[in-house]
Write a structure and sequence with these properties.
12 strands, 30% helix, alpha/beta, 8 helices, elongated
Length: 257
């Protein structure tokens, strides 16, 4: 498999379950995973409900796939996306898939792709059912995607984060709570990868947390990165160590005794 930044992905978008106004942010997010070599979006383009997509598709070079609605009220895109995904899988041209949808009907597809050794990233709204989220390697909520940074715009106590209402960062509510389950998740993950002194490389901790909880994202709590989130929680210690590159520091974290 290619290096992370060179991995090729197929991006499959369910137009009937995704707001077109967030397309730019979605494509920026996908670019952090690798190269989107195949970009397709599925919907019934004869319907007025998807007419807002036209300009967006041209700007982002996304290929629209027509799928007529055979039955009133039934999502018509599911089967077309699934068939195309399997065709792409067997072509051997990609290293993974980005499934952009909030529909749980793609749960089995995500599982099958991972069984075939594919990396599967999911992107959808916070209403996305848990089974689809759990089936992905990583799942990102559309609501937290933004071109603005949030690290300096939020303050955290052990229980909540407050921020100014006029800052366009995720999440959208004024107050966000970090519940005890998240604290336990971070604590356990640190213990799982820590050395004999209890210190763990933060990047390893972050990777393990995502494996345990695919929809974990610091942006859900108002931060762009894990480091500033951890720094504001009293249960953890941070140690920033020098590296061979003066501009880069290795961040380690430890549970407080």
């Amino acid at each position: 498999m290619r290096d992370d930044k060179e991995r090729c992905f197929a991006v499959l978008i369910d137009a009937e379950n995704i707001p077109y106004k967030k397309t730019k942010e979605i494509m920026v997010e996908i670019a952090t995973y690798g190269v989107p070599t195949i970009k397709r979006i599925y919907g019934d383009w004869t319907e007025n409900t998807v007419k807002g997509w036209k300009k967006i598709l041209l700007e982002n070079a996304i290929t629209p796939i027509q799928q007529y609605s055979y039955t009133t009220g039934k999502n018509s895109t599911d089967s077309a996306m699934i068939i195309d995904a399997m065709d792409i899988l067997y072509s051997g041209k990609v290293d993974g898939f980005c499934i952009v949808s909030s529909d749980s009907d793609f749960t089995r597809l995500a599982i099958r792709l991972r069984e075939a050794g594919m990396i599967v990233y999911g992107i959808g709204e916070q209403k996305t059912p848990t089974p689809f989220i759990a089936a992905c390697n990583k799942f990102t909520y559309i609501e937290v995607l933004s071109t603005q940074t949030a690290d300096t715009d939020a303050t955290v106590t052990d229980k909540k984060i407050s921020r100014e209402e006029n800052i366009d960062i995720a999440p959208k509510s004024k107050t966000v709570y970090i519940d005890s389950d998240i604290i336990k998740l971070i604590t356990a993950s640190i213990s799982d990868v820590a050395n004999d002194d209890g210190w763990a490389f933060l990047a390893d901790v972050g990777n393990l947390i995502i494996k345990k909880k695919p929809d974990f994202d610091p942006r859900n709590f108002g931060f762009m990165k894990l480091t500033p989130l951890i720094k504001t929680l009293s249960q953890f210690e941070i140690d920033e160590r020098e590296s061979n590159n003066s501009k880069i520091k290795h961040v380690y974290v430890r549970n407080k005794q």
